[in-house]
Amino acid sequence: MRLFIFMVFVMGWLGCQSKRQPVDLVLTNGVIHTVEEKNPAAQAIAIAGDRIVFVGSTAAAQNWVSGQTRVIDLRGKTVVPGLTDSHYHFQGVGKRAFDLNLDGCKSLDEFLSRIQNWTTGKQPDDWITGRGWMEEDWLDKKFPTRTELDRIVPELPVYLNRADGHMALVNSKALELAGITESTPNPAGGEILKDPRGKLNGLLVDKAMSLVARHIPSNSAEMQEKFALQANAAALAYGLTTIHDAGSGWDTINLWKRLYNEGKMQIRIDEFVRGPGDDVETLLQKGPEIGLFENHLTIRGIKISIDGALGSRGAALLENYSDENTRGLFLWQDDQVYPTIKAATEKGLQVAIHAIGDAANRKVLDLYERAFNEVPVEKRKIADPRFRIEHAQIVDPADIPRFKKLGVIPSMEASHAIGDLHFAIRRLGLNRLSGAYAWRTFIDQGNYIAGGSDAPVEEGNPMIEFYASVARRDTTGFSTAGWHPELRMTREEALKSLTIWGAMAAFEEDLKGSLAPGKLADLVVLDRDLMTAPENELFQIKVLLTMVGGKIVHQNEQMQQLAARND
């Protein structure tokens, strides 16, 4: 049916072309990277309603202009398809703007100073919450403890997420309110860390975090709406027109539905309902909801996290960490997640499972392969379910070919590689790095990579992801021995990972991901050409204008001035 509708639209477009019908908007004199194999470069685009009707030369675009057509002369600015972040935590990005932000702290002293300043004006029943700390940015690279927190905030409970979201630091007051003592057992899939004397050090890993988090008062409905609107604005300002939300529940989804209905959100969201649990069971019963609000919201995915993160030593490894006597954590047992995977295979829902360690990646591949064997193609609602592994970060080289064999999509965040290079060698040793962040290996064997940021774990700026993909160095230019620069992407591949490959990972390649007649008019205008700019400038590229469905939803002052001159 989707193919039929698309062909009808294309036939209509061909008819319009012969009649040269006037359009709403024409962009001319641009450097346009279409991400189309047969027509990779252009100068102009014509748009009618929410669709592209023409891509070609500036001269030919004049055929589409009438007295009612708005024309914007781009004066050589660069245009790319609307960008997709294939792993994004939408509400978390919005919340980041209202919470204590510990990102970028360069020392324990700065970390503690920000916390102390944040406590000013807090009431006796308030919690101090925040996220973003990263001990790897500090000189001694040691985890902070509750002892340091207790010295500056003894009376208010404190809960602070590490940057990766898989470890929290809490103070003694928070432990007291949660009833956690030295004798409290570790929950399945989590760990309550202790110092060498067996005393609580205030660090909680993965599912142990919920022992305290469930005592934090929930944000009000009013605040949740503010988070959503803030996230919407932040994404559009970075040139994102679609995000794949990596796990929310129905309360959040219903909030978005209301905001779309009220015309308050413009970003397109492909939703993965977090599971396993009641929310996923609801989705399995209801089935997918596709293309709501004029292709702004699709709900067809299930998100599960099978292990933790490398930095907090929760990623599940086949062998011990090189710097600790542990192999990490599995957050769920097979019998807790496999029924969901099998049911999704039958019902045409997409599964995306977080797996960072090599043991976790092997486990997910095994579970997917079992489901595919037990649910043959003729028994599936969708023959190719396009199941995903989120992060696919550390993969045993023997398991990489299985991604292609099984049709599993690696959904990866390039910025993790340029952040993790500062500690991954200590965690893994040199021998395991050939299968780490292995973009080139995946692409060369025929996989495509859905690129994302994992924001708010990372900034959420797709130009940083683009830079990281092609440079494989941090933004200071630093790399290190054994970091396998040969695993980089080309610039063309990096752009595909943020456009058409993300669309393919969401069954949407007929709608978006490239600039072609018949597709949604989602595009971004950049201040310089990401295909020719010096490598060390790529992460500094600015978004001048973002368009969703033919409507300008963000433009900076420079673009406003340019558009005003055109008008």
Summarize the structure.
This protein is an alpha/beta fold and 567 residues long.
Give a written overview of the molecule.
With 567 residues, the protein is α/β, with parallel strands linked by helices. Among the domains are: 2-81 and 523-566, Urease, subunit C, domain 1 (Roll), CATH 2.30.40.10; 100-213, Roll (Diaminopimelate Epimerase, Chain A, domain 1). 33% of the residues lie in helices and 22% in strands. The strands form 4 sheets. An 8-stranded parallel beta sheet has the order 8-15-16-18-19-20-21-22. The chain has a 6-stranded mixed beta sheet with strand order 3-2-7-23-24-25. Strand 15 (240-248), helix 9 (250-261) and strand 16 (268-274) form a beta-alpha-beta unit. It is globular, with a radius of gyration of 24 Å. The two termini are 41 Å apart. The model is unreliable at 15-19 (pLDDT under 50).
Show the helix and strand layout.
Blueprint: H1 2-19, E1 25-28, E2 31-33, E3 41-42, E4 44-48, E5 51-56, H2 58-61, E6 70-73, E7 78-81, E8 83-88, H3 90-96, E9 100-101, H4 108-118, E10 128-133, H5 146-152, E11 158-162, E12 167-170, H6 172-178, E13 190-194, E14 200-206, H7 210-213, H8 221-237, E15 240-248, H9 250-261, E16 268-274, H10 278-286, E17 289-291, H11 292-295, E18 297-305, H12 334-347, E19 350-355, H13 358-374, E20 388-391, H14 400-406, E21 409-412, H15 414-420, H16 424-428, H17 439-444, E22 450-451, H18 462-471, H19 491-497, H20 500-504, E23 523-526, E24 543-548, E25 551-555, H21 557-566
Parallel strand pairs: 1-6, 2-7, 8-15, 9-10, 10-11, 15-16, 16-18, 18-19, 19-20, 20-21, 21-22
Antiparallel strand pairs: 1-4, 2-3, 4-5, 7-23, 11-12, 12-14, 13-14, 23-24, 24-25
Helix pairs in contact: 3-8, 12-13, 15-18
